[in-house]
Amino acid sequence: MRKEIIFGIALAFASTSAFAAFSDQDANGNGQLSKDEFYGTMADQGTFSDWDLNSDGLIDEDEFNELGYDWDYATWDANDDGYLDSGEFYDGVYTTYDADENGHWDDGEWDDAGDAGILDV
Q1: Could you tell me if residue 59 is inside a domain?
Q2: Residue ranges of the alpha helices (H) in the chain?
Q3: Are 94 and 38 in contact (CB under 8 A)?
Q4: Residue 75 contacts by C-beta under 8 Å, 6 or more apart in sequence?
Q5: Containing structural domain, residue 102
Q6: What's the total number of domains in the chain?
């Protein structure tokens, strides 16, 4: 099942040029990717729905762990209710790769997300 999920996500990303380059995502051209720019890109790709295996609009810990990333589910579950909604999911992804914790991704952080990260296709 895990291989099918990973393949599905990779296929969704590969079928569009949305993840082609950092500069394509940097809508205002300031050399940084804001959360809003990131959210628009990720939401357009259906990433959250790809991880929501039972299509209930939430990601539980089993669904989260299905892809095998070494991330702490409890850290992503900001309201501590045992589920991730889409906001918690995208915040979790964004903060995971915001290495310098300045609230913006630079092209290096974008590359990290793509190099064996969530955007690696």
Answers
A1: yes
A2: 2-14, 22-25, 35-45, 47-51, 61-65, 73-76, 86-97, 107-114
A3: yes
A4: 92
A5: 2-114
A6: 1
pLDDT tens for each residue of 74-113: 999 999 999 999 999 989 989 988 999 999 999 888 888 8
Q: Assess contact for 45 and 16: CB atoms under 8 A.
A: yes
For the record, the structure tokens of 95 come out as 């903060």
From residue 61, how far is each of 20, 39, 43, 52, 112 by CA, in Å? 30, 22, 20, 11, 24
What's the rounded Cα separation, in Å, for the pair 76 and 25?
Answer: 23
> Which of 50-62 are b and which e, b meaning 16 or more Cβ less than 10 Å from the residue's Cβ?
bbbeeeeebbbee
From its phi and psi, is residue 59 left (phi > 0), alpha (psi between -120 and 50) or beta?
beta
User: Does any domain span residue 8?
Assistant: yes
Contact 23, 105 (CB under 8 A): no
Please indicate, yes or no, if residue 119 is contained in any of the structural domains. no
pTM: 0.74
Q: What is the model's pLDDT at position 23? A: 84
Q: What's the pLDDT score for residue 12?
A: 47
Neighbouring CB atoms inside 10 A of 34's CB total: 17
Q: What is the pLDDT of residue 49?
A: 85
